[in-house]
Amino acid sequence: MDKRYSLHVSAATIFGLGRARFAPGTVATLAAGVPCFLIIGHLGPPSQALIAAALLAVGILSSGKAEIELGKVDASEIVMDELCGFLIAMIGHPVTFWSILTGFALFRLFDIWKPWPLRLFQDRLGGGLAVMMDDVGAGVYANLLGLLILNLAGLQQAASG
Predict the structure, then answer these.
(1) What is the pLDDT of residues 64-84, one digit of tens each?
(2) Which end of the chain is less congested by CB atoms within 10 angstroms, N or C?
(3) 125 is a domain residue
């Protein structure tokens, strides 16, 4: 039987991307995060941060309600956190192949690994805040390390302002 879900579940799963059979977080990052960055990457970093902050607010609300509706804590179907975290990972980065590849790889690494204090966010916070904040932290880590790597490799260009 096909169960109909609320707009919150639709948003939190990025309209079904989170239901991918294998690696839904990676699928969402590739299928939603990369195209979104291609669209907003030409905006200045303040605009990129504002968009990520708006997604974070929607994600906290929708993820919390989706957890209740799905009956699971931090359900794997909830992937709005990956979209938000990846966009944070890319704030201020140029729209280039190497930048996107570096940001993607580092964001997924930190999101899966959850180095300190990211696991604490997930373990000690509740609801939508817990779902979103470990990915926000993974995005921050990926952003900073990505900028460093791209600068050291000579692949970093100044982001448009």
Answers:
(1) 999 999 999 889 999 999 999
(2) N
(3) yes
